[in-house]
Design brief:
This protein is mainly beta and about 230 residues long. The protein contains four helices and twelve strands. The chain has two domains: about 140 residues, Elongation Factor Tu (Ef-tu), domain 3 (Beta Barrel); about 70 residues, YaeB-like fold (2-Layer Sandwich), CATH 3.30.2310. Strands 1-2-7-6-3-8 form a six-stranded antiparallel barrel. GO terms for molecular function: methyltransferase activity.
Length: about 230
């Protein structure tokens, strides 16, 4: 079997650190799937406007492809301490490095790179190869009675995220009209606590950084609150 990507994902996440651990957790994250010929055709999406969400089937790339698969993994939801079988997880180190995410779609757009599908709430790295797009069908795909095992809801959602005066000034200069939604994006990403689950072993470490778009976000965890201290550009 041989699969050919139909497009490539453009997202705010330019580094693995900071990517939400599931789709839909950071609704301020918007991106697009840039479609390759011959798939960049509007008729291929006829009828999709009636659906609010889509499944994106994609390839884990970068080091996930070369690292190979592992029979057991340590999920972040278990603090990186307890192992489970790879087929009981969504870890990227799989026999076939395929991922699937349900995201909101915002319609087709024409741009410099041709036809793209705008999406929101992704949990994928910028540059991810996309294999397929399918409509999300609530009556079949949503199973509210299903058990979720160890995948409990994130504990830190809603944690206070504050900005230093210097960081806020820099963000306003970078996004004066607020069109990129940088402040809200940073708030939502950090509220998920992107640190590895084992970081509670190192309470002395309080300063961290992550990349979004071309930005390096420097932040500090103190007394259960997060403060964005600096915003740097590459």
């Amino acid at each position: 079997m041989r699969f050919e990507p139909i497009g490539i994902l453009r997202s705010p996440y330019t580094d693995k650190f900071g990517i939400p651990r599931q789709p839909g957790l950071v609704t301020a994250a918007e991106g697009r799937i840039e479609l390759f010929p011959p798939y960049a055709r509007r008729e291929a999406f006829k009828g999709l406007e009636g659906f609010s969400h889509v499944w994106v089937i994609f390839l884990f790339h970068q080091d996930c492809v070369t690292a190979g698969w592992r029979p057991t993994v340590r999920p972040p939801r278990l603090g990186g301490r307890e192992s489970v079988g790879v087929f009981a997880s969504r870890a990227p180190y799989r026999p076939n490095p395929i991922g699937i995410s349900a995201v909101e779609h915002l319609g087709l757009i024409d741009g410099k790179r041709g036809l793209s599908l705008r999406i929101r709430g992704m949990d994928m790295l910028d540059g991810t190869p996309v294999l397929d797009i399918k409509p999300y069908v609530p009556y079949a795909d949503a199973l509210p009675q299903a058990a979720s095992g160890f995948a409990t809801p994130p504990e830190m959602t809603g944690v206070d995220v504050e900005f230093s005066a210097a960081a806020m000034q820099r963000l306003r200069a970078l996004d004066p009209a607020g069109e990129r939604g940088l402040v809200e994006l940073i708030k939502q990403v950090l509220a998920q606590d992107p640190r590895p689950g084992y970081m509670d072993r190192y309470p002395q470490r309080t300063d961290f950084g992550l990349s979004l778009y071309e930005l390096n976000i420097r932040w500090r965890l103190k007394d259960g609150r997060i403060e964005v201290t600096r915003v740097e550009t590459d």
